[in-house]
Amino acid sequence: MTAVRPDFVIEQNWGGYSQEEHAIWRLLFERQQRLLVGRACHEYLEGLDGLDVAASGIPDFRRLSDILDRATGWRIVAVPGLVPDDVFFAHLARRRFPSTCFIRRRDQLDYLQEPDIFHDICGHVPLLMNPVFADYLQAYGEGGLKALGLGHLQRLARLYWYTVEFGLIATAEGLRIYGSGILSSAGESVYCLEDPRPRRLRFDLRRIMRTRYRIDDFQQLYFVIDSFQQLFDATRPDFAPIYQEIAVLPDLEPTAPIDRDLDREFVDVGRKKIGPHISAAQV
Ligand code: PHE
Ligand code: FE
User: Which of 38, 145, 151, 167 could pair with 163 in a Cys bridge, judged by C-beta atoms 3.0 to 4.6 Å apart?
Assistant: First the structure.
């Protein structure tokens, strides 16, 4: 092995994947394909089509990067796992998406706390084919470097969590998924739209920055955007004064009571229109 590079980039070594690893990819891929039609937003499904991420096995990053680069100027770089925050943000700011290379084992199909190649590639990369989302993630990387300098990383990380990882989007056909943490999870891609327990609030930058999140179970709260343009525009202002403003306010739990004057909740939006899994009791 060569020494770790300062940007943590490694070789994917695509030729080194075993038949079992490709088979696990196919299993995950086919299962999510079935679940995500009618649940993922159309931008995601179109990105997936455009990338031609195959059901046939783990994709080669070089091939994917060439397609992605032609569409939005992003590339995928292989990294060994979670990388330091500053390294992660610097990659995003330069339109490079750091992806892990390993795939979960067969006995971990449903649950994994750390990202693997299926989450990183199937969850994150298709949306990077969308020009507005592609710009948002680059801006997030730049904002991350800035937040690090200002000491407000935790508040910015919540924005990533509640948008990039666990975001929902309202469409004329109903709520749809765009968060990669949901898109790569069989259980949560159904739960987030169809289960009556989690709450779904309209996107609110300040509330997101104040709201804690849990990493060990399905989310209790989702935030819903109207469009990627709305998300991009709402996050365009300088966050420095917003961090200041929020620093004096208490953090919120995801289960904190909803203030009906401030929060706009989706009570029945979309879920009626999703398909066969809906029961009237969910409204
Ligand atoms: N506008 C943010 C800032 O000033 C940068 C940012 C953009 C952060 C998009 C996140 C997402 O810090
Ligand atoms: Fe992720």
Answer: 167
Cα 247 to middle of ligand 2, angstroms = 26
Residue 202, beta-bridge partner list: 224
Is the model's pLDDT at 274 over the cut of 90? no
Q: 242, 216, 222: which is closest to 162 by C-alpha?
A: 222
H-helix or E-strand spanning residue 207 = helix 205-210
57 CA → ligand 1 middle, Å: 36
Q: Cβ(163) to ligand 1 under 6 A? A: no
Average pLDDT taken over every residue of the chain: 91
Q: Buried (b) or exposed (e) across 71-97, using 16+ Cβ within 10 A?
A: ebebbbbbbeeebeeebbbbbbbebbb
**Residue partners of 22: CB distance under 8 A and separation at least 6:** 56, 57, 58
CA-closest candidate to residue 213, choices 165, 141, 245 = 165
User: Ligand 1 pocket test: which of 228, 239, 242 has the largest number of ligand atoms within 8 Å of its C-beta?
Assistant: 239
Overall average pLDDT of the 160-179 stretch: 97
pLDDT at 270 over 60: no
Q: Are strands 199-202 and 221-225 parallel, antiparallel or unpaired?
A: parallel
- Answer yes or no: is the C-beta of 139 below 6 A from any ligand 1 atom: yes
